[in-house]
Inverse folding.
């Protein structure tokens, strides 16, 4: 997807999994991250991060203004795109997969709501722990159903995979009617290996290039008015343009292309970076906003230990876990798992969301790269 | 007198400048070898996956290259490199080696061969004459193997000539592990096979791009099951086998599958079989 073709590309496109393409410069972004990690180690963080505009001259935006400039993502266009794709599919089960923080739960819920289709309740933790498969019978009551988050339907131990295996075997053979399953991309990769779900069609959101991110961030910031100009503290160049006229010029999207490549084109991750990194000048005379170096996230060092790596992998495969369940799926004691989780929490690599520990959006890229470099199973996105 | 002059002509006149050159070459060689060995080892230990093994493989090759270069500089300074001189020198050396330092030099030559043929590299898990462990260092004369008991064993390279070298991962990241289960004959074999496969599939250490195989073998005392699977990193092999064994036992005992009660001679056979399967 080059820039010329992406200029006309829709923001929200649902495509088959094998048609997913990472944005331009994704590989270069990974090399840059490794180089940055090495230069930080050699010359220190300050020297490695050369800035045109000092962060000390900037301040965080007030919550109210931030909420106006970067409101939560409205996933309804993605739900509509999903509905469009589903029209042409006849398979009993269709997967809709996205990486963490990229909205598969919201998209499938919205799609189900719009089409008056029931979202089947998730099994309880004790049902999963005991290997109970009775919860699969709940699906028999529905002709059409939706599962927004398949990652809540299993635990990685011998008992914990029995239910999801029974469910998927029956669903894929068409004995449970017709359904749409929202699934984290890491869970999907794991279940592909453990159960074998290649036969069912899998859809995902197509990646966004820098130009598309520019359009999206401008659109959400304007609310029909004019979006403020945004500059990069790294280069001093304008990142987001303040008028339609400027936007129509042959705009340089390098900074947002860099962000798109870093996030592998996933809008949910890019949105978190955008929201976390917007600043305004401390002095009242200056206009415009600043984007502090978008990629300076909580980094994992190359010598991250095996226990921490296993904790991160378990969290990704399950789409987040509470402390008790984390101890259940790891091959060491609960207190070792807790210690490792606490250390990761202190570094800002994991955080709690709805009682589950998850990889923070700003750490996701470096965690994925670390796991891939150590030959762990990674997601297809 | 003539004889004396003939041998004197074998060697060049070593003046002070030649001595300084030799000293500088010797010092540079030592420094370069130390720096390259420590630097590459340091770098490799911080890497993971295939890159780690590639850097480790460079360690003996780099040392060999430095030594050959140093010899190529030093030899013409000490002797006149004519055919006659070389034959005389090599003949004398051969005689000395043949009588006094046969094994030592054989190990040195095998060390050169090992740097080229790569039967083992740092990071490999090898078994040489019953010594199993991770290759930590490939030296000029010996290879240092760290056993799971944390003993460092120096094995002379000359074992290359007449002993089998078992290399479990051969410069890669794939190392097969085997977890054994000895079960009472009365059990549902199909269910056990499926359950043991699930045990492997749910291990946090499992490498997914390699196959999982559950092997069942009928014995007079019961059935011997083996899970053959690969951990993500060869260094996790003992943790992986332990994880498979502990969780496998839990699953089997929860289902009421009993362990085989082996008679003493069968127990010895089983132990030997398990050892030979590594």
């Amino acid at each position: 997807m080059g820039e010329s073709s992406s200029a006309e590309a829709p923001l929200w496109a649902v495509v088959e999994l094998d048609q997913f393409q990472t944005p331009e410069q994704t590989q270069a972004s990974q090399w840059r991250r490794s180089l940055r990690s090495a230069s930080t180690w050699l010359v220190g963080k300050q020297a490695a991060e050369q800035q045109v505009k000092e962060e000390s001259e900037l301040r965080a935006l007030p919550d109210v203004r931030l909420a106006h400039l970067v409101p939560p993502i409205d996933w309804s266009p993605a739900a509509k795109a999903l509905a469009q794709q589903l029209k042409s599919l006849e398979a009993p089960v269709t997967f809709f997969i996205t990486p963490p923080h990229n909205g598969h739960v919201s998209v499938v819920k919205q799609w189900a709501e719009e089409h008056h289709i029931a979202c089947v309740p998730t099994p309880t933790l004790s049902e999963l722990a005991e290997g109970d498969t009775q919860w699969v019978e709940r699906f028999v009551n529905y002709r059409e159903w939706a599962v927004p988050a398949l990652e809540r339907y299993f635990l990685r131990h011998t008992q914990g995979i029995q239910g999801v295996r029974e469910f998927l075997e029956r669903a894929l053979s068409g004995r449970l009617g017709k359904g749409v399953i929202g699934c984290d991309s890491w869970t999907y990769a794991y279940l592909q290996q453990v159960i074998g779900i290649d036969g069912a069609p899998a859809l995902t959101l197509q990646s966004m290039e820098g130009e598309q991110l520019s359009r999206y961030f401008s659109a959400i910031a304007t609310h029909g008015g004019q979006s403020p100009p945004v500059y990069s503290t790294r280069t001093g160049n304008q990142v987001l343009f303040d008028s339609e006229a400027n936007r129509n010029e042959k705009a340089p999207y390098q900074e947002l292309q860099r962000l798109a490549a870093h996030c592998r084109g996933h809008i949910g991750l890019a949105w978190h970076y955008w929201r976390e990194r917007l600043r305004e000048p401390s002095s009242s005379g200056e206009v415009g906003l600043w984007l502090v170096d978008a990629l300076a996230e909580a980094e994992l060092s190359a010598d991250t230990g095996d226990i921490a790596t296993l904790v991160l992998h378990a969290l990704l495969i399950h789409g987040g876990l509470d402390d008790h369940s984390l101890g259940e799926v790891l091959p060491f004691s609960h207190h070792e798992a807790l210690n490792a989780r606490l250390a990761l929490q202190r570094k800002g690599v994991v955080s709690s969301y709805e009682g589950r520990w998850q990889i923070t959006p700003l750490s996701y890229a470096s965690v994925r790269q670390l796991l891939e470099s150590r030959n762990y199973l990674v997601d297809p996105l | 007198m003539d004889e004396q002059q003939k041998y004197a002509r074998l060697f060049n006149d070593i003046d002070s400048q030649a001595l300084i050159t030799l000293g500088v070459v010797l010092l540079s060689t030592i420094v370069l070898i130390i720096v390259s060995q420590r630097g590459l080892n340091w770098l490799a230990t911080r890497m993971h996956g295939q890159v780690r093994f590639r850097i480790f493989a460079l360690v003996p090759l780099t040392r060999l290259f430095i030594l050959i270069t140093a010899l190529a500089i030093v030899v013409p300074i000490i002797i006149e490199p004519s055919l006659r001189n070389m034959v005389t020198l090599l003949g004398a050396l051969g005689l000395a080696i043949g009588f006094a330092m046969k094994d030592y030099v054989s190990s040195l030559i095998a060390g050169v061969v090992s740097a080229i043929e790569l039967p083992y590299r740092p990071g490999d898990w090898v078994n040489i004459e019953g010594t199993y462990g991770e290759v930590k260092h490939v030296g000029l004369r010996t290879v240092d193997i760290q056993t799971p008991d944390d003993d460092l064993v120096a094995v002379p390279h000359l074992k290359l000539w007449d002993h089998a070298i078992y290399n479990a991962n051969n410069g890669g990241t794939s190392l097969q592990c085997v977890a054994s289960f000895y079960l009472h004959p009365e059990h549902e074999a199909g269910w056990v096979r499926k359950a043991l496969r699930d045990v492997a599939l749910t291990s946090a250490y499992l490498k997914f791009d390699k196959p999982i195989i559950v092997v069942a073998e009928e014995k007079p005392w019961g059935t011997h099951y083996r899970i053959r699977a690969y951990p993500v990193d060869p260094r996790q092999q003992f943790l992986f086998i332990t994880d498979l064994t502990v969780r496998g036992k839990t699953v089997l005992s929860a289902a009421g599958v009993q362990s085989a009660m082996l008679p003493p001679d069968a127990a010895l056979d089983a132990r030997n079989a398990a050892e030979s399967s590594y």
Observations:
- The CA atoms of residues 200 and 243 of chain B lie 9 Å apart.
- Chain B has two domains: 2-108, 177-276.
- The beta strands of chain B are 125-128, 131-138, 142-146, 152-156, 165-167, 177-183, 213-219, 222-229.
